[in-house]
Amino acid sequence: DMKIASLVHERGRPLIIVVNKWDAIQKDHLTVRAFEEMIHDTLRFTRYAPVLFVSALTGQRCPSILKKAKEVLGTSQARVKTSDLNRLLSHAFSRRSAPVYHGEPIKLFFATQVEVSPPTFVLFVNHTQKLAGSYERYLKNSLRKEYPFVGTDIKLIFRKRTEKAHRSMDDADEEESEAEQAEE
Fold first, then answer.
1. Across residues 166-176, what is the average pLDDT?
2. What single-letter DSSP state applies at residue 150?
3. Rounded average pLDDT over 157-167
4. Could you tell me if residue 78 is left (phi over 0), alpha (psi between -120 and 50 degrees) or otherwise beta?
5. CA torsion sign, 65 to 66 to 71 to 77?
6. The whole model's pTM is what?
């Protein structure tokens, strides 16, 4: 099970974890939560995946598998508007400071979604070397608060962009806007 879940995760495919034989378990009001925690502790990389408890023998909750599969497929193919993405990530960067690299704070210049299934975002920053691990998880969690992406991982790609290049890009955008207004 772990190998299959690992392959699904590595390939960026949507994932639902289905636990069968739920009718054979002695349950109380804490059982579901305890099993979910145990599953997510064992499969740490799949915390985004919903867990369904079913019984194939009795048919309990089996119809919910296809319903959840449709939901997961839909969220894996969702697109986030670039303006909303930049607003959300700028807020995340200001709420929790990014790591410092060679005495200079890491800055976010621009972000955009480049793919769906899995949702893949490119973040243009001044230094890519130190934006891994815990800060990357923080950014993914910030995205998930606004856009849950149920059952699908989020991929973040960090690309280097200098402040000078960012200013040049802004200047080019302004010139393009002025040219469009002049034509009108």
1. 49
2. T
3. 70
4. beta
5. positive
6. 0.78
The answer to whether residues 143 and 154 touch, using CB atoms and an 8 Å cutoff, is yes
The rounded Cα 113 to chain-centroid distance in angstroms is 11
Whether 106 and 125 have beta carbons less than 8 Å apart is answered as: yes
Who contacts 76 (Cβ-Cβ below 8 Å, separation ≥6)? Answer: 14, 116, 117, 118, 119, 149, 151, 152
- Residue 161's alpha-carbon distances to 26, 84, 89, 110, 168, in angstroms, are 56, 20, 16, 9, 11
Q: 121, 133, 156, 144: which is closest to 49 by C-alpha?
A: 144
What lies within 8 Å, CB to CB, of 100 at 6+ separation is 106, 130
pLDDT for 180 = 46
Alpha helices per DSSP H over 43-81: 63-76
Distance CA 119, CA 156 (A): 9
